[in-house]
User: Fold this.
Amino acid sequence: MNSELFISWAIGLVIILSFLIPYIHSIKAKEAKTKIRLEKTRSKRQDKALLQHPIINQSLCIGCGICVESCPEGDVLGLINGKATIIHGSHCIGHGKCAEECPIGAIEVGLGDISQREDIPQLSSNFESNINGIYIVGELSGLALIKNAISHGIDAINHINKCISIKAKSIYDVVIVGTGPSGIASALRAQELGLNYLVIDQDTIGGTILHYPRRKLALVQHIELPLYGKLNKGEYRKEELLHIWEKIIKSQNINLQSNCKLLKINKDKDGFKIETSNGLLESNKVVLALGRRGTPRKLNIQGEELSKVMYKLIDAETYKDRKILVVGGGDSAIEAALGLAHQSGNMVTISYRKDNFFRLKARNEKNIENAISDKLLKVIFNSSPISINEKTVTLKTSDTNLEIENEFVFIFAGGELPFPLLNQIGIEFGKKIEVAV
Ligand SMILES: Cc1cc2nc3c(=O)[nH]c(=O)nc-3n(C[C@H](O)[C@H](O)[C@H](O)COP(=O)(O)OP(=O)(O)OC[C@H]3O[C@@H](n4cnc5c(N)ncnc54)[C@H](O)[C@@H]3O)c2cc1C
Assistant:
């Protein structure tokens, strides 16, 4: 090899290495960060997905990372040892973009092995549970997404319509519980078919969508609602979706009772006796469209029924120049307190029964420390409210009772999941699911 040729090769090699080495270095650095992220989500038990999620065939995966980039929720997947891996499973909503985009078809979206799961009910292909006449639709069935919720609701009502041959006038044909997308779709289909139905919800209408962050974009492909038609756009803001819900409910005069909580269901020879917070209902069939968020836990103290008491914060910006008490010390409480404390003129106090915050997200831990040291808000540790009055709240602390002035109370004391209620009704879980994903 002459020296000129050698120099050309050497220059070529240097140029290639000058790109390759930083590239490999950046991949390694990214992977190290992903491993740290996985350790964190594992320690908080957030690594596993609860609903439908990507199932990655590791022997096919070529580690191109397209799935990681395509996830609309941002941080569900990552690359570890050159293979796609679920990192933050609890953030997975099951959009399935990863499977669509994977160039070699190494990803499927499904529920995986549910034989040991005690939160996925056994259902027939018509969404009927092990109890004839009780149907379970939407996210409670194990499958997330608005489009699934809507199609489940429609399919269940179609089946109910076929099964009810003689419609007893004295009782409802069907009582639907929940006004998320699955409950609303069920009610619309029931109305379209002329069934004698009632839809109830412990809250106001909207279901989980009501709890999305402000202006969150929801991806909603291929959705068609009975009595409304197609939703033409691929994505809608939370507020737009809720507006559509409200408009249909009003224009179709849907038979709805808000603030009515399902407490118990008993089967009898004519159908079901349904105990609710507003009294007893009787129905031939029941559709449970309860979602999985559960019911916010109450403190059961005097004055909790006052309208100034809330269990969720939807829009911090609507509170200005107010005295506000936030009860709780978890991430939701801290995020709400910080959101409220940043609005002009608010005086925010957190009451927490323990002597310190623990197991907060790193970001919340840092932000709350800064907010306390900047005197943006006040925390009263080792305290719990014992009564709520029109203008004050009484807090019990370790040595005395404190009466603090206050205009709003936000309580974040966790939630009661729907599964004990389903167990009590007699719904069976795990084993086998016939519902198509
Ligand atoms: C942050 C976030 C973002 C999301 N983004 C998207 C997205 O972009 N696209 C998408 O398709 N999906 C998205 N999803 C998922 C989607 O919102 C849910 O899959 C869907 O709302 C489930 O609908 P559902 O009707 O089954 O239940 P829910 O919407 O949860 O409604 C259940 C209803 O039942 C009521 N209820 C519960 N218990 C009782 C009781 N005992 N008595 C009376 N009423 C009761 C509740 O008050 C609630 O109104 C997202 C979810 C989250 C959390």
